[in-house]
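User: tokens in, sequence out, please.
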């Protein structure tokens, strides 16, 4: 059985940043396991620009951003194995993996970092009536086919869901010569970034139909068209508002789900709101020595935030190993979301032994204008920050100074107050 100080599951931006973070903290026995044929994860198919503005202070494409981190991994001589699928992670941090080179093997780790990313919500999870014809794709699958395989999936396109991948694919399909008839969104607001709405829809004259959804799919062998209807406040279709769009392609951009099957099998406690692990300020899960970061923890809007968070996970895993594989034994305080905040990461903070300031990241439940973000512990106000607008599509990052948290024993609440 091979042994490493830290085994990282996933070689995308999260896994690579975690490896670099752990290395910079002094750990040299690191192994990255990646199921694809190369490092980079989903970034390898994201050929559009807009990455790296925070991390590298310049605008990069997805493959360029991934290559920057892959170059760091190679320069530091951090071992990585591609074409390797992790099958199981035991509570004692034994990782079972399979590959063409090693077959099925068990790898013993002192600490494990989960960086498996997320997957798209498929049609089966959306309960759309109709047949199952050719021409219905998730937006990410279409992106892979167009950008990596050189296959244009259709000519007349409707996109359900206004997530960032869907918005970007509206532009990409247009540039490929397809006609995107509409982007249909169930909610009264877009679930994508404002800049993507402007650059991918407005600049190309593609309509965004808010508070609408697809209620029927026509076509048995090949998609012939979809019926779109307006929805009410309860997100139920309103009779008499139906519109029919002839199309040969329907792209689904209806949310992302963290890849947490390994986490569940390992017995890690999951947050029902994020579908990711419950973690503390060091991104350690409910199992000692197992850490989570990136989109497997909660879905991010910017890969720069993924890299920053994952580097912290790598540093925390390194500190865990250097302490002799012991976790903080003090009782943590809970971090609770309320008053317009949907969830927080972390959900727990060990205020007795903090190594530095604590990042709290969260998303809001709706659009809020002229509100203050208020973080309290009991009656003690830790942070108050005014925001002109808060939207569900943009993750918020608040830093709480270490000196304000030390000795706090009451639970911490994160909420919004109207200015």
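Assistant: Sequence out:
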């Amino acid at each position: 059985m091979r042994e490493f100080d830290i085994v990282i599951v996933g070689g995308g931006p999260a896994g690579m940043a975690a490896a670099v973070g752990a290395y910079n903290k002094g750990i040299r026995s690191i192994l990255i396991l990646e199921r694809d044929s190369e490092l980079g994860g989903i970034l390898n198919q994201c050929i559009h620009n807009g990455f790296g503005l925070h991390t590298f202070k310049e605008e990069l494409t997805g493959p360029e951003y991934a290559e920057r981190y892959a170059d760091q991994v190679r320069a530091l001589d951090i071992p990585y194995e591609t074409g390797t699928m992790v099958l199981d992670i035991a509570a004692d941090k034994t990782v079972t993996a399979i590959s063409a080179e090693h077959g099925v093997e068990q790898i013993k780790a002192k600490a494990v970092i989960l960086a498996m990313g997320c997957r798209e919500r498929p049609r089966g999870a959306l309960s759309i009536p109709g047949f199952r014809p050719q021409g219905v794709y998730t937006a990410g699958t279409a992106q892979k086919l167009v950008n990596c395989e050189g296959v244009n999936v259709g000519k007349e396109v409707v996109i359900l869901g206004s997530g960032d991948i869907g918005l970007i694919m509206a532009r990409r399909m247009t540039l490929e010569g397809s006609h995107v008839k509409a982007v249909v969104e169930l909610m009264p607001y877009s679930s994508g970034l404002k800049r993507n709405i402007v650059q991918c829809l407005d600049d190309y004259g593609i309509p965004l139909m808010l508070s609408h959804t697809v209620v029927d799919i026509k076509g048995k062998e090949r998609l012939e068209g979809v019926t779109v209807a307006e929805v009410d406040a309860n997100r139920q279709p309103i009779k008499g508002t139906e519109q029919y769009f002839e199309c040969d392609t329907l792209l689904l951009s209806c949310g992302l789900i963290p890849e947490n099957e390994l986490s569940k099998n390992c017995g890690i406690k999951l947050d029902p709101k994020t579908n990711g692990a419950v973690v503390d300020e060091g991104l350690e899960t409910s199992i000692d020595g197992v850490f989570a970061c990136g989109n497997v923890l909660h879905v991010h809007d910017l890969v720069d935030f993924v890299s920053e968070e994952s580097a912290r996970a790598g540093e925390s895993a390194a500190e865990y190993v250097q302490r002799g594989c012991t976790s903080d034994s003090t009782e943590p305080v809970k971090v609770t979301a309320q008053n317009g905040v949907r969830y927080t990461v972390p959900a727990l903070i060990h205020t007795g032994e903090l190594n530095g300031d604590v990042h709290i990241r969260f998303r809001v439940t709706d659009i809020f204008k002229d509100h203050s973000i208020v973080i309290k512990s009991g009656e003690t106000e830790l942070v108050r920050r005014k925001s002109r607008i808060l939207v569900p599509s943009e993750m918020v990052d608040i830093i709480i100074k270490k000196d304000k948290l030390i000795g706090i024993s009451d639970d911490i609440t994160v909420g919004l107050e109207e200015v």
